[in-house]
């Protein structure tokens, strides 16, 4: 392993301004070594971070953060930025509870301007920040760094359009690695792949700009005239430059791994007084062959063997893997099923379906709003669209879910992966809002599954009998099955699991039946693993608790549930979503109206939850097995 000499001495971006080109090359090597070592142990976003090392060095050499603001889109590629802004000593805590975030975090450093983790926001955020600074008389530069994948999001184009209209001196650095999370798709990707400008033109342009700047009084008016004149000429001779058409000056494409050349061009760009796009071409995974050869795998990865990049395999099956197999099985049986993803084919388990049925697979890029409305159109045409999106990203398409799906009664299935507590990625990625967001929407059915068998039954039901259906499950290994999980789906009803299914040695069924204080735990499927552990602990301590798993959050058979709950001394609601607006809060109120007030509601409170392991996040939220057990005991008193 290479020794870390230069990087350990970098305490702020000012420190790298003193280094020679030879030292900068050594620094880049040390940065890559550090990132590989830490991500190998902690997991994280590897390929994207290895691809922007030289670009990040050049940005911090040319600009003066935080007086100049660098805004990272998604910010999953900010590890080098963190290392250059005084966080080297803390870097081993990356993505650990209480440690550094895997994304930019304004509470972590003055060099991070936003808490970011979602795509296509940087241009709008940067433009707003720049406008505010100008109104306050601040002359600092603002730079938005956005990947070609994030540029497929509609919001990025809204920001570009407004920036061109305002004609602010915004700098947009387009990091073009010709691959976002999965391989880029769509006309924007193809456009970027063929977009070129000659080096001769760039040199001539800067010489002219420099000469004009020196003309007293006439410099700025003449500069504006020539800018408009150049735009007219480009309209004639460079008809396919989208950025020029939107009002930007365009520079590139530049070699994203040539730090000296990048620095030279960025210094020239920094002197411009109008919006500019700097097109930089980089290679994902640069400097680590396993990530270079398989950037998709190393986009977001768990701990791995640094020597060869291998990831430990487990015999257990995750919900995502169970869905992947199920999707192929159902696709074989029903030729009307089509699959849609927003740049997350691998992450949502659709890769196998895409290879097996390529004509029925659609990756729309990072465009969740379009994905949802596109599904509505497919449903109108007689297909059964299955839209697979992470819970945290479906937030971006709430209006489309209301207007283009539920209102139309479109027969479609929405698979929300990563629902509930999401480890390591932190506040921007917790999948805890979908129940509260979608439960109020008419004509929308919401299901929550607890095992592979349950997922199969619910998915088959959604495809055959449902209308507009949402199925949510966590980023987790499928729990151990019990016979009740294979019971047929009944509209509005869940799965009742008596505590006898959790009986451990030395406790007889007769002893359990004799218990006076009997508690019912009502839970969403994604929290079943923790409920299972809690019930066993309750039984060991001499208590009693049956479990009712909510297959349906909506519609809900209230009559059946009230009758069931009336048999118990108390009810504990456990939900892997926010309490406010959640199903637990609603059902507890329903029981209270019927005079059954001995209830406890556990869920995510009204605050944001940071990164950590699943167990640590649930501990923070009061949803660990010990918290559930405590709530059961309190209901017994």
UniProtKB/TrEMBL annotation:
GO terms for cellular component: cytosol. Its EC number is 2.2.1.7. It catalyses: D-glyceraldehyde 3-phosphate + pyruvate + H(+) = 1-deoxy-D-xylulose 5-phosphate + CO2. InterPro entries: Dxylulose-5-P_synthase, THDP-binding, Transketo_C/PFOR_II, Transketolase-like_Pyr-bd, Transketolase_C, Transketolase_CS. It comes from the Bacteria. Mg(2+) binds at residues 148, 177. Homodimer. Belongs to the transketolase family. DXPS subfamily. This is 1-deoxy-D-xylulose-5-phosphate synthase. It comes from Treponema bryantii. The gene is dxs.
């Amino acid at each position: 392993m290479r020794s870390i000499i230069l990087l350990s001495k970098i305490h702020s971006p000012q420190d790298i301004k003193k280094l020679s080109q030879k030292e900068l090359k050594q620094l880049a090597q040390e940065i890559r070594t550090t990132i590989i070592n830490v991500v190998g142990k902690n997991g994280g976003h590897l390929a994207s971070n290895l691809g922007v090392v030289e670009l990040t060095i050049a940005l911090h050499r040319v600009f003066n953060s935080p007086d100049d603001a660098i805004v990272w889109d998604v910010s999953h590629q900010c590890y080098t930025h963190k290392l250059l802004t005084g966080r080297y000593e803390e870097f081993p805590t990356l993505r650990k509870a209480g440690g550094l975030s895997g994304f930019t975090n304004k509470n972590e450093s003055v060099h991070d301007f936003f808490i970011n983790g979602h795509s296509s926001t940087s241009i709008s955020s940067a433009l707003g920040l720049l406008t505010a600074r100008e109104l306050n008389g601040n002359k600092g530069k603002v730079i938005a760094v956005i990947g070609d994948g994030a540029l497929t999001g509609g919001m990025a184009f809204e920001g570009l359009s407004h920036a061109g209209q305002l004609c602010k001196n915004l700098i947009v650095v387009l990091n073009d690695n010709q691959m976002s999370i999965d391989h880029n798709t769509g006309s924007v990707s193809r456009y970027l792949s063929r977009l070129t400008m000659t080096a001769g033109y760039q040199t001539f342009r800067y010489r002219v700009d420099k000469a004009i700047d020196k003309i007293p009084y006439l410099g700025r008016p003449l500069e504006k005239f020539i800018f408009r004149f150049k735009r007219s000429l480009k309209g004639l001779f460079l008809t396919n430059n989208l950025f020029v058409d939107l009002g930007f000056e365009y520079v590139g494409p530049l070699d994203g791994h040539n730090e000296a050349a990048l620095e030279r061009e960025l210094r020239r760009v920094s002197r411009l007084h109008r919006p500019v796009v700097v097109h930089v071409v980089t290679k994902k995974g640069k400097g680590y062959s396993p990530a270079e050869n398989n950037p998709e795998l190393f986009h977001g990865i768990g701990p791995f063997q640094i020597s060869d990049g291998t990831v430990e395999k487990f015999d257990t099956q995750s919900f995502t893997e169970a869905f992947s197999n199920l999707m192929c099985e159902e696709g074989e049986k029903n030729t009307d099923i089509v699959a849609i993803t927003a740049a997350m084919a691998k992450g949502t388990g659709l890769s196998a379906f895409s290879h097996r049925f390529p004509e029925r697979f659609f990756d729309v890029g990072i465009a969740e709003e379009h994905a949802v409305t596109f599904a509505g159109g497919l449903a109108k045409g007689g297909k059964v669209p299955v839209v697979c999106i992470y819970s945290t990203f479906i937030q971006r398409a709430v209006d489309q879910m209301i207007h283009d799906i539920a209102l139309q009664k479109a027969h479609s299935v929405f698979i929300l992966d990563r629902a509930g507590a999401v480890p390591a990625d932190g506040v921007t990625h917790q999948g805890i809002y979908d129940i509260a967001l979608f439960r109020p929407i008419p004509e929308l059915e919401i299901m929550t599954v607890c095992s592979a068998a349950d997922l199969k039954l619910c998915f088959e039901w959604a495809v055959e009998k449902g209308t507009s259906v949402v199925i949510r499950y966590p980023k987790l290994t499928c729990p151990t099955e019990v016979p009740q999980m294979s019971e047929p789906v009944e509209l509005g009803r869940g799965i009742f699991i008596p505590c006898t299914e959790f009986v451990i040695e030395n406790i007889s069924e007769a002893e359990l039946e004799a218990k006076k204080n009997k508690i019912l735990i009502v839970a969403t499927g994604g929290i079943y693993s923790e409920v299972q552990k809690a019930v066993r602990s309750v039984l060991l301590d001499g208590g009693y608790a049956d479990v009712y798993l909510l297959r349906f959050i909506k519609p809900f058979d209230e009559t059946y549930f009230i009758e069931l709950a009336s048999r118990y001394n108390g009810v504990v609601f456990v939900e892997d979503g926010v309490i406010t607006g959640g199903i637990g809060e609603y059902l507890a109120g329903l029981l209270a109206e019927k005079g059954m007030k001995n209830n406890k509601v556990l869920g995510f409170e009204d605050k944001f939850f940071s990164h950590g392991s699943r167990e640590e996040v649930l501990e923070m939220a009061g949803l660990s097995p010990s918290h559930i057990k405590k709530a059961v005991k309190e209901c017994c008193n």
